Amino acid sequence: VDPPVKAVISISPSGVIVEGDSVTLNCISDSNPPALNFSWIKGGTIVGSGRIYNISKISSGHSGEYKCKPINEHGEKYSDAVTLNVMYPPRSVSVSISPSGVIVEGDSVTLNCISDSNPPAEISWIKGGTIVGSGRIFNISKISSDDSGEYKCKSINEHGQKYSDAVTLCVMCEFY
Q1: Where are the beta strands (DSSP E) in 30-63?
Q2: Model pTM greater than 0.85?
Q3: Is 4 a residue whose pLDDT tops 60?
Q4: CB–CB of 38/111 below 8 Å?
């Protein structure tokens, strides 16, 4: 007659978990007598009970460390933690321009592509319909009127892609 031995968590499906998947965590414990109750803890907060913890339509908010805690009449013991790392396509893609305000010929201008994705996205820059650069930051040193136009960034990972809205770079333009 023993307190629960340290439990083990199995994750189904194993492998890459993508937003929208249905995921099951199973708390496997060989205590004698068998555990009567199970708690599921995510980052210090109890999020469920029962031997099996089901998450249907998983989202990035479910990412984090999970433990289960089997309890029998002789005690309780936490499992080792498992980490859920939920993958998702790019979202919230936008462009910031520095400096903001009027841009004068000869200025150095930086475009920054802000993108939320897991895993991190590859970024490309499009001016008009042409790819003009890659990477999160697109720098134009000594800008000229030829650089005027509409720019957007494209954020892509293996789960999808998304374009930012276009931003207009206007050299020697006054905005009223």
Answers
A1: 37-42, 45-49, 52-55
A2: no
A3: no
A4: no
